[in-house]
């Protein structure tokens, strides 16, 4: 299956063994709550990154932006909610439960629990994100990024319209 092959490529990228860049370089799209990027700081200079499920799927499917996700994996965080979303998408794509465990288990993911505090933070983000149609998973990612003062990495460009106190990078 295509996802399994892409997952092997993603795992190779994540482990620093390289990979073929079929997409060429693309400009980074960033938004920072304090205009740090306008002062010369780039998205790649923020050390802590929180991955949205769309970023994980981008990596696993070797889509444009996959190399950027791969370069963050060693220090990236991901909410358990985003892992659940990713599992669901991979199962919908036809992977078995065992294949999904193998694929995600091959990645060095630092999965953070969806604690009571994070649940409240994600719920509080509902009003600010409702107009853009963000999901619970999206808000879980944003809540974790807000808590850890990290960059939220997503493929969803709508996030760049947000003003919720989180630095955001859209992969495409």
Task: Give an account of the 3D structure.
The protein is α/β, with parallel strands linked by helices. The chain has a single domain (2-19, 31-170), classed as Rossmann fold. The chain is 44% helix and 12% strand. It has 8 helices and 6 strands. The protein has helices at residues 2-14, 53-60, 66-72, 80-92, 97-105, 116-124, 126-129, 136-148, and strands at residues 29-31, 49-51, 77-79, 110-112, 151-154, 167-170. The strands form 2 sheets. Strands 1-6-5-2 form a 4-stranded mixed β-sheet. Helix 1 (2-14) crosses helix 3 (66-72), helix 2 (53-60) packs across helix 3 (66-72) and helix 2 (53-60) crosses helix 4 (80-92). Mean pLDDT is 83; it is low at 15-28 and 35-41.
List the helices and strands and how they pair.
Elements: H1 2-14, E1 29-31, E2 49-51, H2 53-60, H3 66-72, E3 77-79, H4 80-92, H5 97-105, E4 110-112, H6 116-124, H7 126-129, H8 136-148, E5 151-154, E6 167-170
Parallel strand pairs: 2-5, 3-4, 5-6
Antiparallel strand pairs: 1-6
Helix pairs in contact: 1-3, 2-3, 2-4, 6-8
Helix and strand sequence: HEEHHEHHEHHHEE
CATH superfamily (homologous) name: 5'-nuclease
Extract low-pLDDT stretches: 15-28, 35-41
Please tell me the overall pLDDT.
Answer: 83
